[in-house]
Design a protein that fits this description.
mainly alpha
Length: 171
């Protein structure tokens, strides 16, 4: 398998975890604490992959200054976007649970969908990273594919749990 087909296959492998997580959450009742714990593990895995695999490669190719500027610029853009979205009424978009004290009338019914849309948008750079790892002529970065897969399971779990709590259908 070469080129675009290899990149597509490995992107599909990483992204399929979203569906796996969603199916598990839709058909199995999971306690809120378990979903939160799985989300924490998934985010830790992805942060570790970025810190040890991608940042090292960026440093080797671009040096310290370029890597640091890119890292800080990305963090600043993400933080600014998060603040803007929160101030425009999506403060509780990340809640996937069914705790009545946490419910917000508008936000709770759309929180699962917001997480699902975020996961979809998150998949674009993940797929790009997987594809770029193939450009050097070597194989795909197994660490990156594993990190993407392991971080996508909790995203699927969380979004499906939120949509199920909002009484949305499996489709």
């Amino acid at each position: 398998m070469t080129g675009i087909w290899a990149a597509g296959f490995w992107g599909l492998v990483g992204g399929s975890a979203l569906i796996l997580g969603a199916v598990i959450a839709y058909f199995v009742h999971l306690p809120q604490r378990l979903i939160a714990s799985i989300m924490a593990i998934g985010s830790g895995v992805l942060i570790s992959a970025v810190a040890f695999d991608l940042m090292d490669e960026a440093f080797k190719q671009g040096g310290f200054d370029s890597t640091a500027i890119g890292f800080l610029a990305g963090a600043a853009v993400y933080t600014a976007a998060n603040i803007v979205v929160s101030r425009r009424g999506a403060r509780h978009r990340k809640r996937s649970g069914s705790n009545p004290t946490e419910r917000q009338p508008d936000a709770q019914s759309n929180s699962g969908a917001a997480i699902a849309i975020g996961a979809l948008l998150d998949g674009i750079p993940e797929s790009v990273v997987i594809g770029v790892s193939l450009l050097g002529g070597g194989g795909v970065s197994a660490v990156t594919v594993a990190a993407v897969f392991l971080s996508n399971v909790p995203e699927g779990l969380s979004s499906a749990a939120g949509m199920k709590a909002a009484r949305r259908g499996a489709g």
